[in-house]
Amino acid sequence: MFNKVCGLSGVVVVAAMLSACSSNDRFTVKMNQVSPSGVGADLGTITISSASGGGVELTPNLHDLVPGEHGFHVHEKASCDPGSKNGVMVAALAAGGHLDPDKTGKHEGPDGAGHLGDLPRLTVNDKGFATVPVVAKRLKLADLKGRSVIIHSGGDNYTDNPPMGGGGSRIACGVIK
């Protein structure tokens, strides 16, 4: 019936549109609370897509977070499971450290020459919602597959003092599939 109404060229156009929609031009990451005992309640999603000016745009649609600024990072491994460090269970430790493929060992923020996984701070409004997109100019979508996104309890000062910039404990995590 479709061929009779639209003709063969219509089928080709629809097939091309479906192919574009299902390509890897964006990721939707389900975010959950994390604690030393494991992965908890659903907090919403973050959609990651190519940014028009280069880099990637992370668009949060999150709820039930503590208002204020939060450290926000891409971590090296695709896991939100807790792990043990020095005999103490730590939330989402299985995600590893910040994505740092060049092994800079430096925490210099999203525009610095340090960790590639350093993202702009995530802002949560006074009702606990985060909806304001951030752009990470140094990242590409190809850098992200098989990684995780972590939200930290506090703001991030983008330095190594205190270690890891003062973002604090890991409170939310999502795996980029």
Automatic annotation (TrEMBL):
Zinc found in the keyword field: yes
Reactions mediated catalytically: 2 superoxide + 2 H(+) = H2O2 + O2
Molecular function GO terms recorded: copper ion binding; superoxide dismutase activity
Catalytic activity, EC: 1.15.1.1
Compositional bias (Basic and acidic residues): 100-110
Co-factor remark: Binds 1 copper ion per subunit.
Renumbered residue ranges of the record's region Disordered: 100-119
Keyword Coiled coil: no
Ranges of residues in domain Superoxide dismutase copper/zinc binding: 44-176
Alphabetized UniProt keyword annotations: Copper, Metal-binding, Oxidoreductase, Zinc
Cofactor: Cu cation; Zn(2+)
UniProt record similarity statement: Belongs to the Cu-Zn superoxide dismutase family.
Function recorded in the entry: Destroys radicals which are normally produced within the cells and which are toxic to biological systems.
PANTHER family per UniProt: SUPEROXIDE DISMUTASE CU-ZN -RELATED (PTHR10003)
Protein name: Superoxide dismutase [Cu-Zn]
Annotated organism of origin: Endozoicomonas numazuensis
Lineage: Bacteria, Pseudomonadati, Pseudomonadota, Gammaproteobacteria, Oceanospirillales
